Amino acid sequence: MRSRYRVKEIFYTLQGEGSHAGRPAVFCRFTSCNLWTGRESDRHRAICQFCDTDFVGTDGPGGGRFSSPADLASAIASTWQGKDHARSRPYVVCTGGEPLLQLDAEAVEALHRKGFEVAIETNGTRPAPSGIDWVCVSPKAGADLVLTSGDELKLVFPQPGLDPEQFVELDFTHLRLQPMDGPDLPANTEAAIEYCLAHPQWQLSLQTHKYIGIR
Ligand SMILES: C[S@@+](CC[C@H](N)C(=O)[O-])C[C@H]1O[C@@H](n2cnc3c(N)ncnc32)[C@H](O)[C@@H]1O
Ligand SMILES: Nc1nc2[nH]cc(C(=O)O)c2c(=O)[nH]1
Ligand code: SF4
Ligand SMILES: [Mg+2]
User: Fold this and answer.
1) Which residues span the domain enclosing 154?
2) What is the rounded (10 degree) CA torsion for 64, 68, 72, 78?
3) Whether 104 is catalytic
């Protein structure tokens, strides 16, 4: 029980991506992923090779090991910096790494008790506990998708072997294409724009935090 949750970092910023872009949020980045070790020397043999994130260890700002749902929720609540207002609830985005290797119903309940609306960013390869308020699934080529419903499907584009068409009949409210960051970002952005213009059921998601220089 000493380390039920392993967390790389907890920080307060604006959600940069997807339908909630611009919304103030605490990000809780869980350590570890099932599609990459996180070591650069392993990237070429990973299932997911384009990851833009360091999720190894518990050494980031606010990171650590938390022994209970209440401890994790307290750390997240103490990172929220927004003033109380009737029009908004505190918002936490659980990400990683792959948060569904660790996030359980008890943690979600503890966050709700602290007054949080709970969102998740997941690769969709593991089932989600009940109670999460916003589920964003980002499928990865070569990984089986088990989470086939949610609020938002955010496809990193292009991914050889993944055609956006294969996701349109799934049970997601919003469909988003997010250009793959990396050396080909300009061309990937062009391609995503072209795809959305021709297939208006898809909307563009930009990683706005990278453009404005925040975390
Ligand atoms: C770092 S992942 C962590 C959450 C989860 N493991 C996942 O993949 O959804 C957070 C988001 O960043 C996206 N992402 C990761 N690398 C990216 C890249 N190079 N370009 C664009 N989006 C990327 C993921 O697809 C996901 O939507
Ligand atoms: N600002 C900001 N927005 C984000 N949306 C999803 C992120 C993630 O890494 O999961 C992320 C992130 O790392 N930073
Ligand atoms: S599944 Fe998510 S955290 Fe894991 S390597 Fe891919 S983008 Fe990174
Ligand atoms: Mg990120």
Assistant:
1) 5-212
2) -110
3) no
Number of separate domains in the chain: 1
CA distance 160 to 145: 16
Candidate from 8, 39, 140 with most ligand 3 atoms within 8 A of CB, to mutate: 140
Estimate the crossing angle of helix 69-79 against helix 105-113, to 10 degrees: 50
Catalytic residue among 13, 42, 53, 194, which? 53
For the chain, how big is the Rg over CA atoms in Å?
17
Residue among 121, 154, 207 whose CB has most ligand 1 atoms within 8 A, to mutate: 121
SS3 content of the chain, % helix, strand, coil (to 5): 25, 25, 45
Residue whose pair of structure tokens reads 């995503």 in the numeric block: 192
For residue range 47-64, what is the model confidence (pLDDT) as tens digits? Answer: 999 999 999 999 999 999
- Cβ atoms of 14 and 25 closer than 8 Å: yes
At 196, the amino acid letter reads C
Which residue is associated with the tokens 């964003």?
Answer: 136
Q: What is the pLDDT of residues 147-201, one digit of tens each?
A: 999 999 999 999 999 999 999 999 999 999 999 999 999 999 999 999 999 999 9
Domain CATH number, residue 44: 3.20.20.70
